[in-house]
Design a protein that fits this description.
By secondary structure, the chain is an alpha/beta fold. It folds into two domains: about 170 residues, 3-Layer(aba) Sandwich (Udp-n-acetylmuramoylalanyl-d-glutamate--2,6- Diaminopimelate Ligase, Chain: A, domain 1), CATH 3.40.1390.30; about 100 residues, 3-Layer(aba) Sandwich (Udp-n-acetylmuramoylalanyl-d-glutamate--2,6- Diaminopimelate Ligase, Chain: A, domain 1). Helices cover about 40% and strands about 15% of the residues. The protein is built from eleven helices and ten strands. It has a five-stranded mixed beta sheet, with helices on both faces. The chain has a five-stranded mixed beta sheet with strand order 5-7-8-9-6. Helix 1 packs across helix 3. The termini are far apart.
Length: about 300
């Protein structure tokens, strides 16, 4: 495809995707519009998703193709948190040649691989995808910065809290419970065997500040200061930051708790959100959400 035609095609996708996201246009890619399922390239999927994100595309982002090509015709998609060797093998079994993970694949935030070229662990992962003609596009920044955070929406759904969620608001007013039962609820819903907490297990909890992933101690603490929740539910935090703030709050008589789910489980719902988005905008395209689980085990 020549450069002019490719630019025109990309512009069309960006404009139509923006209208779709605003609800101003019927999905032109639906199976009804075409009479049969449309084939999609990696680049078309990327462009259509990115077009629904305010102020996108971003000049600086980690959401790039790590292996493969924009021009590859997609036979199926796997969404997940981490692209483990098991996830790659399952994608091959499913004949899915596009993997969309939320987090890095090659062990660093920016997926730097220059120092890994001769490493057997890197080579096993990369070569398995290359051999099976798998493309991989990380979707982290864009899904978080949709009109409403797609990861948070997905996690709220997993927790069964949809009816308590207000769009774009990280605070949820759930039915009154205590910290102990809230931890049990989250463990059961997210299939987490154990999680860390700070606070009194008997403390009453209703106002929840939900911050999945690792947003940073300062943002967590600023959220607590602003919203004054009963409990912060987060993915993870440095031990010297928010956990110590919450402990100090309890030491001076403030009733405040913190639940640390773990990074992976706290954001896996975002990959379910991406799967559902693909089902809506790319009907007929086989899409599978496969949770990657946590590499850290409990002894």
């Amino acid at each position: 495809m020549n450069d002019a035609l490719q630019a025109t095609r990309r512009e069309f996708l960006l404009k139509s995707g923006s209208l779709l996201g605003a609800g101003l246009l019927v999905n032109p890619f639906s199976s009804m519009a075409f009479g049969s399922a449309k084939s999609w390239t990696v680049g078309e999927i990327m462009d259509t998703f990115i077009a629904q994100v305010p102020n996108a595309p971003f000049a600086q982002t980690v959401d790039t193709i790590k292996i493969g090509s924009r021009d590859t015709i997609v036979t199926g998609v796997v969404t997940t948190m981490f692209t483990t060797m098991e996830i790659i093998r399952k994608a091959i079994e499913l004949k899915a040649n596009l993997i969309i993970p939320h987090e890095p694949t090659f062990f660093s935030g920016n997926d730097e691989t220059d120092y890994l070229q001769a490493d057997p662990v890197f080579r096993a992962k990369y070569d398995l995808m290359e051999k099976n003609k798998i493309s991989l596009w990380r979707n982290h920044d864009y899904v978080h910065r949709m009109q409403d955070d797609g990861v948070r929406i997905g996690v709220v759904g997993e927790l069964g809290w949809d009816e308590y969620y207000q769009p774009k608001n990280p605070v949820l007013m759930i039915p009154k419970t205590n910290l102990r039962d809230l931890i049990h609820h989250i463990k059961a819903k997210l299939n987490v065997p154990a999680m860390r907490y700070v606070g009194d297990l008997n403390q009453s909890c209703s106002k929840v500040l939900l911050l999945p992933g690792a947003v940073g101690g300062r943002r967590q603490i600023e959220g607590i200061m602003k919203e004054k929740p009963d409990v912060l539910v987060c993915g993870e935090s440095n031990e010297w930051e928010t956990p110590e703030y919450v402990r100090a709050a309890n030491e001076i008589g403030i009733k405040l708790s913190m639940i640390e789910i773990g990074h992976s489980a706290s954001e896996e719902g975002g990959s379910e959100f991406v799967k559902n988005w693909l089902n809506e905008y790319m009907p007929g395209l086989p899409v599978h959400h496969i949770p990657s689980g946590n590499s850290l085990q409990i002894f």
